[in-house]
Design goal:
Layout: H1 2-19, H2 23-35, H3 39-52, H4 56-72, H5 77-86, H6 96-108, H7 112-125, H8 132-147, H9 150-163, H10 169-183, H11 188-202
């Protein structure tokens, strides 16, 4: 009797295991649902895939798919920002372009803390990339206008002007640094010095 019960139990476990869909099956199913405008069903399939997998590349893929749904079909900035931010836990799966794109999406979703992490991660990995001046400037703007960490903002503006003096972002950064010192930090001497440098370097004499 015990043997019979054990066999039945193992059979049930086997059937349950066989009925569970794989990550690939769930993604394929979700893609098909989305193609046919069955957004709720697609979202459920992607969420199940997200919970199922522990593979880094798959986590990045499905997080992006869910984030896109919350951006495009079912607007929910908090959910979009959270799923996009999940990819930052897998930096080895992200190249320069994908990390930059996800960071922009995180920012647009309003998850500013995670956006700071994304920008900082990108700049740490790709400091000599041609896009480093614009990414540093964008991070400075993020600290200035959203995070409101003015000390960090002026440090990053200054970094753009000093490290990338030939960049088109250098004059904007130097002027912004002066603006913050004058109008927000109320350090008028520092602001005056920065504006004088700005005029000397970037403004043609009449």
């Amino acid at each position: 009797m015990l043997k019979k019960g054990l066999i039945i139990g193992l059979g049930i476990i086997f059937l349950i295991g066989c009925s569970r869909k794989s990550y690939t099956e769930l993604i394929t199913e979700g893609d098909a649902y989305l193609k046919n405008d069955k957004v709720k069903e697609a979202l459920n399939a992607y969420r199940e895939a997200f919970q199922l997998t522990a593979v880094a590349g798959q986590k990045v893929e499905v997080s992006g798919k869910i984030g896109d749904i919350f951006t495009q079909q079912v607007p929910n900035a908090d959910s979009a920002g959270a799923y996009y931010a999940a990819v930052l836990d897998y930096p080895d799966e992200l190249n320069s372009e994908s990390l930059r794109n996800f960071t922009k999406k995180i920012y647009e979703a309003g998850n500013y803390g995670a956006a700071v992490r994304g920008y900082s991660m990108w700049l740490e990995k790709y400091p000599a990339d041609p896009l480093a001046p614009s990414m540093t400037y964008d991070l400075a703007e993020l600290y200035h206008k959203q995070v409101r960490d003015l000390i960090q903002a002026v440090a990053l503006y200054d970094s753009v002007a000093r490290k990338f003096p030939k960049s088109p972002f250098a004059p904007k950064a130097l002027f912004s640094e002066g603006y913050v010192y004058a109008n927000e930090l109320k350090n008028y001497d520092k602001a005056k010095s920065l504006y004088e440098i700005f005029l000397k370097i970037f403004v043609e004499p009449l």
